[in-house]
Structures are given as structure tokens and as C-alpha cells.
Amino acid sequence: MERLTERFLRYVKENTQSDTNTGLTPSTPGQYVFSESLAEELKEIGMQDVELDENGYLMATLPSNIEEDVPVVGFIAHVDTSPDFSGKHVNPRIVSSYGGEDIVLNEDEDIVLGTKEFPELKRYVGNDLIVTNGKTLLGADDKAGVAEIITAMEILLQKPEMKHGKVRVCFTPDEEIGAGADYFNVEKFGAEFAYTLDGGEIGELEYENFNAAGAKVTFKGQNVHPGYAKHKMRNSIRIANQFLTMLPRHETPEHTDGYEGFYHLMSFNGDVEKTELQFIIRDFDRSRFEDRKKEMEHLVRKINNEFGEGIASVELNNQYYNMREKIEPVMHIVDVAEQAMKDVGVTPIIRPIRGGTDGSRLSFMGLPTPNIFAGGHNFHGRFEFVPIQSMQKATEVVLRITEMVAGQK
């Protein structure tokens, strides 16, 4: 646990925020610099075939130490942190043997991680929690996953009595901006199946995620001096607002959970002449997902019927699909992860991801990839924390999976 903790504390101090605006892969130089240091660390612990490509994908091999021919399993985590909150100058600290009280993150600015707002804290009484100083995110998403995978590989290399087949690991860039699988070479990776360690609280095991699309709806207006605008002005902002009122009122993120889908308005920008709305569309069920996209097109047609052809237009872009349809034919890989958790004393929490994961895209690229917990809470903000004991259990799950795949009881 000490080695795991040291790794994580070192990793989170590296600034690896991704950026949607650069058009590069990786999107920020800090990610590549961090992956270079990880490559050296993998070599130092004895991993083989360590290779960092020009796009920032770092792959390595743990050779088999058994004679039997068993499936090659992979473990994957991403090195970037969210672009939505500062990941620069992360200054973590450990709250040892947490007692159940509110945690003051920053006394000067009165920033408190409180049990009323974050009641899940109470579940970790007695654990050692790593928290922020209230000014940055922590980076457990997903540097906890990186630390857990590398620590598990180091243990396997140091303990030859732990039998395992060939294991492949990969650390990817830009997951937080939806580009983590863009240049992932599945054939080169060479695993039969894999697991991302990118989940939240201890016990999470996920093989379902949203079907996802983006939508840009554009409205054309016509500006005329407001004093002489009758029957001449066409205010695109008002037309856009009318469009919004036509969408189902309660099918939004703030009104949905579980398997419920939604339309989410991400931005509203415009003036009288032109207004653009950016949406994301989400649903677990493929047919309902397709219906949601059709509904957007239908409402655009209704706007054009009222205001004139070409006044409104929509651009739809599919982003990813529910990996369940690719995982169900190989459900034994979920069963392995579930049993591995039970074997190390973790109660599995199997539930859908109300979001996406690299695993969803990788599954459709031919690499079935469920998602396993990394242990953190409140990702992408100042109130992020991770129990060290949860990271330890994630590491143990990786070790147990490698044993089970190799046929070890």
C-alpha cells in the first residue's frame, strides 16, 4: 500500500489536463511528458515491449510465467485529467484514519468537504483519504487507475510464485475529451479482452453505458431596426427559445437517473441574426436513442414550417454506443471481474455508466472492455477524494483477475 500511495501522490502532481481546442494528440504536452516518465518506470520494474508512440499511447507487456496457453488480458487507464477544472499545481494530502468529520480543505478560503453534502464520506471512517487543497481537482480520474495497474504489474514481477499468462497494459491520452480511443491500435495491443480501471467508488463494475450523440441546432434570423421591425425582423434567439420549449421538459440530466435518457443543452450562443444550440443526446436503449435523434429533426421541421424553410437546421454526430451489445456475447469476462472482487473481499456494484468510457469505443473496435472501479469520488472538482484502501483493493482485483484468467484457483 505504501508503494501504491507514493506512486499516486507523485502522479497527481503532473499537470496532464487535456484540451478540446488544440486539435492535437495528445492534446497537451504534459500528457506526453508524463507518459515518458511512466515508460521509464515500466522498464525499471521489468516490463517488456515498452513502447510510447507519437500519439501518446503507452503499451507494455508482462510476459507469461506459465506453460499453458491462456487468453491475453489487458488493463487500461488514461493519463489525462478533466479540462473543466484546474489540474495544475495539485497539492494532495492524506487524512489518516478518517474519523467521520467534515474535512477542511482550505481554511483561508473556507472550502470544506462536508458530510452533509457528501454523505458517502461516512462510509470510509477508519480509512486513509487523499484529498485536495480546495484549489484543484485531485486526479484520481484516472491516475488512481494508472497507479493501481503499475503496482499490480510490479507485484507480479516480484512474486514469480503468482502464476499468470501474458498481460498487456496501455495508458492512453485524452479520454476526458472523448478521444481516448482515437488512435488505439487494438491489433497491436493483442489482448483477447481488457478492463479499464476508470470507475468510481469501490466495487463498481460496469458493462453498460449510454448511446451518445452530439447535436448542433442553428437558427437564422433577420435584423432590422427595432423601431421599424414589424413583419420584418426575425429574432433567432426567440426562435431558438421556442425550439427549447418543444423538447420534453423533464428529459434532462437534472431530472433523470438510472436507465433514463435525456437531452442536455450544453450551450446557447447567439444574437438576432444567428443562434446556435449545442446538445448532447443520451440513452441506454438503441431504439430510444434513435428516436431522440429523429425527434430533434422533427422539431426542426416544425420550426421551418412556421418560420420558413431553412430557418432552422440540425447537425447530428454519433459519438459512441452502449458496449453492452458487444459485452453480452462474452459475459464471462464480467463474471471473472465480479468473482475477483468477491475473492478479495469487495462487494460488486454492477450498474450502468451514465456517461461514456474508452471501453465503450474499444468494445466496438473489437476489444471487449468492461470498466472496474479505481476508487475515487467527486471527480473533476475540488471535492474529489480517494480512499487509499479502495486503491489497494483495485490493485488486488487486477492481481486476482490475472490469476483467474491463468486458471489459478
| Class per helix and strand makeup | alpha+beta
Label the CATH architecture of the largest domain.
Answer: 3-Layer(aba) Sandwich
β-sheet strand percentage = 15-25%
Instruction: Note poorly predicted spans.
Output: none
As laid out across the biggest beta sheet, the strand order is: 1-2-8-3-9-16-10-15
**At the first level of CATH, what is the class of the largest domain?**
Alpha Beta
Tell me the number of helical segments per DSSP (H or I, 4 or more residues long).
10
Cα distance spanning the termini: 24 Å
The overall pLDDT average reads: 96
Give the SSE string: HHEEEEEEEHEHEEEHEEHEHHEHEEH
Domain count, please report it.
2
**Rg over C-alpha atoms, rounded to the nearest angstrom:** 24 Å
- Under CATH, the topology of the largest domain is which? Aminopeptidase
Shape: globular
Proportion in helices: 25-40%
User: Count the strands?
Assistant: 17
CATH H-level superfamily title of the largest domain: Zn peptidases
- What characterizes the major β-sheet? 8 strands, mixed
Structure write-up:
- The structure is a single chain.
- With 409 residues, the protein is of the alpha+beta class.
- The chain has 2 domains: 2-208 and 323-405, Aminopeptidase (3-Layer(aba) Sandwich); 211-320, Alpha-Beta Plaits (2-Layer Sandwich), CATH 3.30.70.
- Helix content is 31%, strand content 22%.
- It is built from 10 helices and 17 strands.
- The chain has helices at 2-12, 29-45, 140-158, 186-189, 236-246, 286-307, 324-327, 332-343, 358-364, 388-405; strands at residues 48-52, 58-62, 73-78, 93-95, 103-106, 111-113, 129-131, 167-172, 193-199, 204-206, 211-220, 262-270, 274-283, 312-320, 349-350, 371-373, 385-387.
- An 8-stranded mixed sheet has the order 1-2-8-3-9-16-10-15, covered by helices on one side. A 4-stranded antiparallel sheet has the order 12-13-11-14. It has a 3-stranded antiparallel sheet with strand order 4-7-17.
- Helix 1 packs antiparallel against helix 3, helix 3 (140-158) crosses helix 10 (388-405) and helix 8 (332-343) crosses helix 10 (388-405).
- It starts with a helix and ends with a helix.
- 44% of the residues are buried.
